Write a sequence for this structure.
């Protein structure tokens, strides 16, 4: 199911509108955390009891861990562990909604499950990890959060509770046969109260041989690899600095001598790029960031470029080591990049130029603040202050 994203006059966020109630939700969690596992069980039981038409999908390790404690069947499917492993088609085709329980790494992992498809389902993330910059919701709000997403865009006529119609339902009717918004109790959301979406740009990444052959995937038909945060070309365990030719917009920019290079999205600007001296960029700014890692030249400053500007990193023949490592969202791809090979990066198109519809990117469901006007909210600013301690003076307690 492909939801529709529409603009609003209040702010730059988009509104989520389902064409019909979502049917399949993928639940992912942080590994090796018993408390989050217990939360997952509670969350899954709530979804199953309150939204009986929904199917729950778990990753194999999570399904094995909690299946005996749920008391009802769940679905699972094989999932890729590396970015160069093609995502199973059934996962991208069947998943309507993704919900994560963990930190930013869990959100990145969920996004990586769709690293070879232009469509990513809306992601409802609960911050239960170490940092939680991408986790919009607190887990104690899971009932409100899930209902807000499930009902998003429902017209009042469908969301209203008609006790008469409910009383006429027979026991033989299967609640999964024809799911409707009217089966969910509570105050109608209506079209005026949709869930709000922050559409995060991704990177389109391709690796090419010196002859121009695409090499970034074990499946030639898989196409580009998409990343939410960044792609990193780095020296790995090699003791030598790497010499990388940098091209911007098809033109030679410079010969970088450094530990490596980072190309990040605005979302990734607060990750490795920030630690390497890169700028912080708002996720609504359509851009790419080019940041060197420990460059030999002190005049090599980070760059912020338009998202539609192609960037190419080519390993120079001057290198003492013959290969560099490539990592996508923190996961090393199986094959390194040798001399003459290129890593080509371009920002993902998130809006169809012909139809004007929003597509692509990672639709992140933003948490609303009760009693606060939409135009007054800015979760990104709050994250900078509360999580990154932006511009805190030395010696001041945080």
């Amino acid at each position: 199911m492909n939801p529709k994203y529409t603009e609003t006059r209040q702010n730059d966020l988009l509104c989520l509108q389902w064409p019909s109630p979502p049917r399949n939700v993928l639940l992912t969690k942080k590994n090796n955390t018993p408390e989050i596992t217990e939360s997952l069980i509670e969350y899954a039981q709530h979804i199953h009891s309150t939204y009986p038409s929904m199917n729950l999908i778990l990753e194999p390790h999570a399904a094995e861990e909690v299946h005996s404690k749920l008391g009802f069947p769940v679905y699972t499917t094989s999932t890729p562990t590396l970015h160069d492993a093609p995502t199973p088609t059934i996962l991208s085709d069947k998943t309507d909604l993704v919900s994560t329980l963990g930190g930013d790494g869990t959100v990145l992992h969920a996004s990586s499950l769709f690293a070879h498809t232009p469509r990513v389902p809306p992601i409802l993330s609960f911050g239960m990890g170490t940092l939680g910059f991408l986790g919009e919701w607190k887990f104690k709000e899971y009932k409100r959060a899930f209902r807000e997403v499930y009902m998003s865009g429902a017209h009042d006529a469908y969301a209203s509770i008609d006790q008469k119609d409910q009383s006429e339902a027979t026991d033989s009717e299967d609640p999964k046969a024809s799911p409707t918004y009217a089966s969910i109790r509570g105050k109608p959301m209506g079209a005026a109260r949709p869930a709000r979406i922050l559409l995060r740009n991704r990177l389109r990444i391709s690796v090419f041989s010196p002859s121009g052959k695409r090499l970034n995937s074990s499946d030639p038909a898989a196409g580009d690899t998409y990343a939410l945060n960044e792609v990193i070309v780095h020296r790995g365990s090699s003791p030598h600095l790497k010499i990388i030719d940098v091209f911007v917009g098809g033109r030679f920019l410079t010969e970088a001598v450094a530990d490596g290079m980072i190309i990040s999205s605005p979302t990734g600007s607060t990750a490795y790029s920030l630690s390497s001296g890169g700028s912080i960029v708002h996720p609504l700014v359509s851009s790419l960031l080019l940041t060197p890692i420990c460059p030999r030249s002190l005049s090599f400053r980070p760059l912020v470029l338009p998202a539609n500007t192609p960037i190419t990193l080519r390993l120079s023949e001057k290198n003492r080591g013959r290969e560099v490592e490539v990592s996508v969202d923190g996961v090393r791809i199986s094959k390194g990049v040798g001399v003459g090979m290129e890593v080509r990066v371009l920002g993902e198109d998130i809006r169809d130029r012909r139809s004007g519809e929003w597509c692509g990117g990672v639709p992140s469901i933003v948490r609303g603040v009760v009693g606060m006007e939409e135009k007054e909210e800015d979760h990104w600013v709050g994250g900078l202050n509360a999580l990154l301690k932006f511009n805190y003076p030395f010696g001041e307690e945080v």
Remarks:
- Residues 179 and 320 are 63 Å apart (CA to CA).
